[in-house]
Backbone:
């Protein structure tokens, strides 16, 4: 004989209500877990923000280090006091800040970067004529 549970016959209303309660309990648990995850993610950085912060730090540090190194090499080569070291340190810091500004404002060295200033230069040259 076949099992009445497999055929779907002979199910008692109690079994159906228990299954329904079990499903509701699992749904509530899943919703609670989802809320906990969203609470944790609200305090975390947005996706990709860690990479942007890392790049900003790298640009600033690299600009300062490269500038200071070039200044140190020039001072050793020309046998001067730390004149070039200090000068190139500040120049490197300015270059790092410029790179960060270009990255944040979306003005990388993409095609057309210099074209935004070209019409003004053309107008100035036409006014001189």
Residues:
């Amino acid at each position: 004989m076949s099992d009445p549970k497999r055929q779907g016959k002979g199910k008692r209303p109690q079994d159906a209500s228990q299954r329904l309660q079990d499903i509701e309990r699992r749904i509530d648990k899943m919703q609670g877990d989802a809320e906990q995850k969203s609470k944790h993610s609200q305090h975390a950085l947005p996706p990709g923000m860690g990479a942007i912060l890392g790049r900003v730090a790298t640009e600033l540090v690299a600009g300062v280090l490269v500038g200071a190194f070039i200044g140190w090499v020039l001072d050793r080569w020309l046998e001067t006091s730390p004149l070039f070291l200090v000068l190139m340190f500040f120049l490197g810091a300015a270059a790092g800040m410029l790179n960060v500004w270009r990255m944040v404002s979306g003005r990388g060295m993409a095609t057309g970067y210099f074209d935004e200033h070209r019409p003004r230069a053309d107008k100035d040259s036409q006014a001189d004529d």
In short: The two ends are 107 Å apart (CA to CA). Residues 63 and 94 are 8 Å apart (CA to CA). The chain has a mean pLDDT of 78. The chain has two domains: 12-43, 49-107.
